[in-house]
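Summary of Year 1 activities. Much of the first year was spent building the evaluation harness for sequence design. The harness presents a backbone, in tokenized form, and records the residue chosen at every position. We chose the following record to illustrate the format because it has been used consistently in internal testing since the harness was completed.
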């Protein structure tokens, strides 16, 4: 059975193509913002709710009136941008119904709109547009032309959608493919629990820590220098644009390092274990700022800020997302469990008490005297909880 996968490749556009890509991205951003303003104005002045179908029907007239601008690009890609706004409103109304902070859709500044999507290969775009070329892949984009692609690995499955994304001064093409063949690995009969951490990215129930490289901390000096240089530049100047690009390039490098490390560690885990149990962490809640105001600041604000930075630098979200993809492709089972009290419960006798965890690293059960590394003890509890969930599901 095939699965859905994404393949991301670096684009090698000419200077003229890079300018066209930037113009395409900017026009789609303008379209998004205009559609948002249309919805806001219609509701505010007339109480009318404008939906995707209404705005999509107007695209034909918009393109005809602006043939040298909006009319240059693929009709389907512009529809995808309007669907993106529709999804933002759908998420907004969902949050309202659930009583969460609504977060009304916002206008997109130049730094907050970086992707254009073509919903169907062959409709305004074409992957591998020059298949007769012996060594290089190309993607054809309407209004831009045949753009060279650095295809560092083969594309499998059926290309469904094509997206172009700008990261700093680089351009990437992202292919979403259906029917990608799964690659099940041989059974090992082993199971493992993972306790996520900061000192180590994770600790297994077998007692093996996964190192936390702290990529952001390693680049902190260069980032600080780049930020200081940026702060000295005059807004709107060419030097400021170069400084912004420098900062963006450093952050992009950290992201690539973090993702590369996550892929390597996840691959090692799915190769060694049939069942992987991890904590169902609410990372967004865990990394919220310390409560308080300017007049009455919260307690330990600096410490909380440092912890948040360490959690985000560890890249739990990236690691767990990559692990889920690799586990699905390899035919491994992945179970998320409630992390409550896993660090306070004795993995030997089950006694749960706050005093069991003496320090961040040391665990000693106050009931049976069992001693262990606190993270290893927690990982064993996580594994046990996962096995119990699987057993209950099989019995149901």
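For this record, the design step produced the sequence shown next.
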């Amino acid at each position: 059975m095939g699965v859905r996968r994404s393949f991301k490749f670096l684009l090698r556009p000419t200077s003229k193509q890079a300018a066209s890509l930037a113009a395409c991205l900017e026009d789609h951003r303008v379209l998004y913002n205009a559609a948002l303003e249309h919805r806001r104005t219609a509701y505010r002045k007339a109480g009318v709710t404008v939906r995707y179908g209404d705005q999509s029907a107007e695209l034909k007239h918009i393109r005809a009136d602006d043939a040298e601008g909006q009319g240059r690009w693929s009709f389907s890609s512009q529809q995808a941008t309007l669907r993106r706004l529709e999804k933002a409103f759908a998420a907004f109304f969902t949050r309202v119904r659930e009583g969460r902070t609504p977060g009304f859709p916002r206008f997109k500044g130049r730094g907050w709109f970086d992707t254009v999507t073509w919903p169907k290969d062959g409709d305004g775009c074409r992957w591998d547009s020059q298949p007769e070329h012996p060594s290089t892949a190309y993607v054809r984009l309407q209004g831009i032309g045949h753009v060279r692609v650095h295809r560092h690995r083969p594309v499998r499955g059926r290309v469904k959608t094509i997206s172009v994304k700008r990261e700093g001064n680089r351009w990437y093409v992202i292919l979403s493919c259906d029917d990608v063949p799964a690659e099940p690995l041989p059974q090992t009969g082993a199971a493992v629990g993972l306790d996520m951490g900061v000192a180590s990215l994770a600790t297994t129930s077998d007692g093996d820590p996964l190192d936390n490289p702290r990529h952001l901390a390693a680049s902190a000096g260069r980032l600080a220098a780049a930020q200081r240089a940026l702060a000295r530049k005059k807004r709107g100047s060419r030097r400021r644009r170069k400084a912004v690009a420098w900062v963006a390039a450093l952050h992009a490098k950290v992201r690539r390092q973090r993702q590369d490390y996550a892929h390597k560690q996840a691959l090692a885990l799915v190769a060694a274990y049939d069942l992987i149990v991890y904590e169902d962490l609410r990372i967004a809640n865990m990394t919220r700022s310390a409560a308080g105001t300017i007049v009455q600041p919260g307690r330990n604000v600096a410490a909380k800020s440092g912890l948040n930075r360490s959690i985000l630098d560890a890249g739990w979200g990236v690691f767990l997302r990559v692990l889920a993809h690799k586990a699905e492709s390899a035919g491994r089972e992945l179970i998320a469990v409630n992390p409550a009290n896993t660090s306070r419960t004795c993995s030997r006798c089950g006694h749960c008490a706050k005093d069991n965890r003496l320090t961040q690293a040391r665990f000693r059960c106050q009931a049976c005297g069992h001693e262990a590394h606190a993270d290893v003890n927690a990982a064993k509890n996580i594994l046990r909880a996962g096995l119990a969930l699987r057993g209950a599901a099989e019995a149901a």
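The longest strand covers residues 170-181. Quantitative recovery figures across the full test set are reported in Table 2.
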